[in-house]
Specification:
The protein is α/β, with parallel strands linked by helices and 284 residues long. It has ten helices and 14 strands. One of its GO terms (molecular function) is phosphatase activity.
Length: 284
């Protein structure tokens, strides 16, 4: 694969980021310099622009980035979203009513009337949710809103429904969702809270596979090389010319990958890119 016709796309948490949710100095300096020499690099994450903006800024990325597992693609040059996939209003309303009726505490990610990102929830019930909210709040994230009944949400602008809970309970819901053709869903373990699970529900096109193909075509490139560690990376792997799982990835993710590289805490993504792109980058 040639450097100028290949898109390199990395997941963030436990793939490009270290355990403390930061970029290493080596990763930052290398990618900034490599991009100036023609490396087409970006990221695809379950995070929002608010919580991944430090990566966008630190790497000085010029290419669009994939957010919310593919529900949004944001272009830093235009400072605008160039793609968004929202849940169908009727499907969202039906699922929300069912979840609340079953005693679960859904988290709703959506845009408000001013098109600002908001995260609505009624109460905090699990340790993983507490950790997640606190980690965002300490970095100045102002998306969070406590709601009584979710009635303030514009149902046509819902990005995702997220639930936390025991694996068995969420697995049961996941199986029920398979009959709904307008949505996509991912059940995965919380990477920062072992033993806690997340079930994320969104529009059928809101997955990393759809988004990475859309971005590749938007940029006029031919190949995709992707890096990941968790179940939400599997759709991206399926659409990639070559897919690499870090060695700390979940076993199904490693099995689905074209190859397995080093540990995320050891700059595995950068090590791989250096190895395969060294000659092309050095000659520029």
């Amino acid at each position: 694969m040639k450097l100028n016709d290949t898109l390199y796309v990395s997941d963030l948490d436990r793939t490009l980021l270290k355990d403390d949710q930061t970029l290493s100095e080596e990763t930052t300096s290398y990618l900034v310099n490599a991009a100036k020499k023609g490396l087409n690099f970006t990221y695809a994450t379950a995070r929002s622009l608010a919580s991944s903006g430090f990566v966008l800024k630190g790497l000085e990325l010029q290419l669009p980035v994939i957010l919310y597992n593919g529900a949004q693609i944001y272009c830093p040059k235009k400072e605008a979203y160039i793609h968004s996939s929202y849940m169908e209003s009727g499907v969202y309303s039906k699922l929300l009513k069912q979840l609340i009726g079953d005693g679960l505490n859904p988290i709703v990610h959506s845009l408000d009337e001013d098109d600002k990102l908001r995260v609505y929830f009624q109460t905090v019930t699990y340790e993983s949710m507490v950790k997640w909210i606190n980690s965002r709040l300490k970095n100045g994230d102002d998306r969070f809103r406590v709601t009584i009944d979710f009635s303030e949400i514009e149902t046509s602008k819902v990005i995702s429904l997220v639930m936390t809970g025991p694996y068995e309970q969420l697995r049961e819901y996941e199986q029920q969702l398979s009959a709904e053709p307008t949505i996509s869903h991912v059940l995965s373990e919380d990477v920062y809270c072992e033993g806690h699970y997340l079930l994320e529900i969104s529009h059928m096109d809101a997955n990393k596979g759809f988004a990475v193909e859309k971005l590749r075509d938007h940029l006029g490139l031919e190949n995709i090389v992707s890096f990941g560690d968790n179940n939400n990376d599997l759709p991206m792997f399926k659409k990639s010319t070559r897919s690499l799982a870090v060695c700390n990835a979940k076993e199904p993710v490693q099995n689905a990958a074209s190859g397995v590289i080093g540990h995320h805490n050891e700059d595995a993504v950068i090590s791989y890119i250096k190895e395969v792109c060294h000659e092309n980058l050095e000659s520029r």
